[in-house]
Specification:
It catalyses: ATP + protein L-histidine = ADP + protein N-phospho-L-histidine. The two termini are 60 Å apart. By secondary structure, this protein is an alpha+beta fold. 37% of the residues lie in helices and 20% in strands. Strands 16-20-21-19-18-17 form a six-stranded mixed sheet. It has a five-stranded mixed sheet with strand order 8-10-11-13-12, with helices on one face. Strands 14-15-24-23-22 form a five-stranded mixed beta barrel.
Length: 751
């Protein structure tokens, strides 16, 4: 079995398990929701079929047992309850664990027999038949009457599932003829007909998997579909060369084009069972069609409809003019229907690395041309092209927040149930996109905040009622994008954070002295939750109490060049706000000079650039005033230890000027505002001030001169250099120089 097939199986199954979790949550919330039940059956059926086709019988058997139990629920024989859902979620978790082993080693050693037998016992005898405190199933084998692999089932076992999916209910032994006009179960509209598409997958390595993709694509693209042999048999690869699909369409050519466009289809032969009105071009099926034809393959009435394009599913749009108007001609426009392709993450990272190199080379080339006084008009065009390529690749790396947060409802549900709390969890902004790296790193901080919200924030129902609240607590996760940043808010309506309790705990743990905590405002006291090792929980549990977590949350967010803030009102709730950049690595930087050494400051952090002739002294510290606000001055020469390195005193003060939000870019990517600032009177000797955005850090950085602005690739510090206060990374300039990029939040310590 190839690694490519295993990766495809794991990728599809991961999505399926997430969908299964969320559909089960929807069913638990509303047991009468038919859409949730249908979604559960579809997903469990797909997981079962995929696993069986790949040869993972234990995985398939467990998914099949879930189907059997859910069928009893759908039939009204078993009611939805907390105990039932616990068992189903336990099975989903086991599937997830098995999938993890398959992803790591290509196989799984986990034995699901106990859980599988419990599910089957519940299906036969009801929920009360099991001890709800633990798994009571045995691990000594499987009953032949129930089986664990749907590939071992006979036609009767598949009849019910096939009926549910609209499959052909005729005999599978090939001895009794099946009349498609009577048994396909499809109901065409006034302008539609029923057509048979005989599908040939060619020399498929994994016919079951390929057939599954075909069925999903055809089912999405047509109003109705039935199968011969039945769907279970097809998805398990139990067909010899070809299988038949019956679909509702307006013409045979539509069927030919639609089915032929699926990348896994090698050839398709279309014939009319019940032609649509006015469709005289399609061949017809006279008399009965023996079910054995599906396994014998038959003759292809038309030519090859192979498509070499790679893709997922047909996008649902059909061009009636494509393909020949007959029993399966060549489909010349099949690739037009492919709307997306799957790209391996490693390939995307490689492409991203090449773009980074291109950006660096472009900067180097421009600098060399400027030094040689060569006309750069042609380079301007290259700038536009490379910038467009860079933007495209960055967009390709953007992934919807749903890829992470769709697993959170299950997390909140399990925590709340374990603590006997009632919690509604709402998510808004699932479609907001972030860079893949950021999305991967931010998952754990969000999980920790949610766990704290359930454990620390939401009160028990009785306590909430006594306080006049709804006994059911609410946790909201909201995401919103503004320009190049995404804000994620996690808010609960729980008990909030008592500042006095934090003060007492800080003194008790020796984090702060009594005098220090008494001098703190409530907002400053709440910031103590981010101190390493700090926890207000006296009891250590599986969820919290060890004092490990919130400091890691802030560190992780800061490493992503983001920020996290906390606001809380006792008795009303707590609100965490995380602000993150949409993308990483390639940033626009203002380069400054300090004692002859060049440093970079990200433009997005700079609110204003001005001459340093307005510096005052207050209480012994240098400050600068702006709109009645006072900003402490940090002299970079002092905090960076460069004083006297190149004579000190500045290398030119520059003329005053403001650069808000990074200035206005011209064609070569530089800032007109930045150039104006750096072109000042060298005799002033007072240096320059970079006032930092207040929400980032209300300070002003003093430097000798402002040099220029460039878009650069920032490489984070690694190893023993990582975490150095005041530095966020390095950038290689066009002349090969390596310049340190400053972290304005940790530079010189917080004042």
């Amino acid at each position: 079995m190839s690694e490519a097939h295993i990766r495809a199986f794991v990728r599809e199954s991961e999505e399926g398990i997430t969908e299964l979790n969320n559909s089960l949550l929807a069913l638990e919330s509303d047991p009468d929701d038919p859409e949730a039940m249908d979604a559960i059956f579809r997903t469990a059926h797909t997981l079962k079929g995929n696993a069986a086709a790949m040869g993972f019988g234990d995985f398939s058997g467990l998914a099949h047992a879930m189907e059997d139990l859910l069928d009893e629920v759908r039939g009204g024989d078993i009611a939805v309850s907390g105990d039932l859902m616990d068992r189903l979620f336990e099975a989903v978790d086991l599937l997830d664990a098995m999938l993890g082993e398959i992803d790591d080693s290509g196989d799984t050693s986990i034995d699901p027999t106990g859980v599988e037998e419990d599910l089957r016992t519940m299906a036969e005898e009801g929920v009360d038949s099991l001890d709800t405190d633990g798994v009571s199933g045995t691990d000594d084998g499987t009953d032949a009457s129930t089986g664990t692999d749907s590939a071992d089932e006979g036609p009767d076992a598949n009849a019910e599932a096939d009926t549910a999916t609209g499959g052909d209910t005729g005999s599978d032994d090939g001895t009794e003829p099946v009349d498609p006009a009577l048994d396909h179960g499809l109901a065409p509209g006034d302008d539609e007909g029923v057509y048979r598409a005989r599908v040939d997958l060619g020399d498929a390595d994994m016919p079951g998997i390929d057939a599954m993709f075909v069925l999903e694509a055809v089912e999405d693209g047509f109003a109705g579909m039935a199968c011969d042999p039945d769907r279970d048999a097809i998805e398990e690869g139990e067909f010899d060369g070809t299988f038949d699909l019956y679909v509702v369409a307006d013409a045979g050519a539509t069927v030919d084009a639609g089915v032929g466009a699926v990348s896994q289809v090698d050839a398709v032969d279309v014939a009319a069972v019940e032609p649509a009105p006015g469709d005289d071009a399609s061949g017809t099926i006279d008399g009965a069609v023996d079910a054995a034809d599906a396994s014998e393959g038959g003759d292809n009435a038309g030519g090859d409809a192979a498509s070499d394009a790679a893709g997922d599913d047909d996008d649902g749009e059909r061009d009636d003019s494509s393909g020949s108007a007959g029993g399966g001609g060549s489909t010349s426009s099949s690739s037009d229907n492919i709307s997306s392709v799957r790209v391996d993450v490693e390939q995307l990272d490689d492409l991203y690395g090449l773009v980074e190199q291109l950006v660096t080379s472009r900067i180097k080339l421009r600098r060399e041309m400027e030094e040689a006084d060569i006309d750069s008009d042609n380079l301007d065009e290259l700038d536009k092209i490379s910038t467009s390529l860079q933007d495209t690749v960055m967009d390709m790396r953007l992934i919807p927040l749903s890829a992470v947060v769709d697993t959170f409802p299950r997390l909140v549900r399990d925590l709340a149930r374990d603590q006997e709390k009632d919690v509604n969890f709402d998510i808004d902004g699932r479609d907001i996109e972030l860079d893949r790296t950021i999305l991967t790193e931010i998952r754990d901080p969000l999980v920790h905040i949610l766990r704290n919200a359930v454990d620390h924030g939401i009160e028990p129902p009785a306590e909430r009622e006594a306080a006049g609240k709804d006994p059911t607590g609410t946790i909201e996760l909201r995401a919103d994008r503004e320009r190049d940043h995404v804000t994620i808010v996690v808010e609960d309506d729980g008990g909030g954070i008592e500042a006095d309790a934090l003060r007492e705990k800080a003194v008790e743990k020796g984090v702060k002295s009594r005098g220090e905590v008494e001098a703190m405002s409530d907002a400053e006291a709440r910031e103590l939750v981010f101190h390493p090792g700090f926890s207000t929980n006296d009891e250590v549990t599986d969820v919290s109490g060890r004092g490990v977590g919130m400091d890691v949350v802030r560190t992780t967010v800061k490493d992503l060049d983001g920020s996290v803030t906390l606001d809380s009102t006792p008795g009303e709730g707590t609100r965490f706000e995380i602000k993150l950049p949409v993308t990483v690595a390639i940033v626009r930087v203002m380069f400054v000079e300090v004692d002859g050494v060049e440093y970079g400051v990200p433009i997005k952090n700079i609110a204003e650039v001005s001459r340093a002739d307005g510096v005052d002294v207050a209480h012994g510290d240098e400050v600068v005033r702006h709109d009645d606000d006072i900003y402490p001055v940090i002299r970079l020469s002092e905090v960076l230890g460069t004083t006297g390195a190149a004579g000190g005193g500045g290398v030119g003060g520059g003329t005053g000027g403001a650069l808000a939000d990074g200035g206005v870019d011209d064609a070569d990517g530089r800032s007109a505002g930045a150039d104006a600032v750096g072109a000042g009177d060298a005799n002033e000797g007072d240096g320059m001030l970079l006032r930092i955005h207040e929400e980032k850090r209300p300070v002003a950085l003093h430097c000798d001169d402002v040099l220029h602005q460039e878009e650069v690739v920032v490489k984070p510090l690694e190893g023993i250099l990582s975490g150095i206060p005041g530095l966020s990374g390095t950038a290689v300039l066009g002349d090969g120089d390596v310049v340190s990029i400053l972290d304005v939040e940790t530079l010189g310590g917080r004042r």
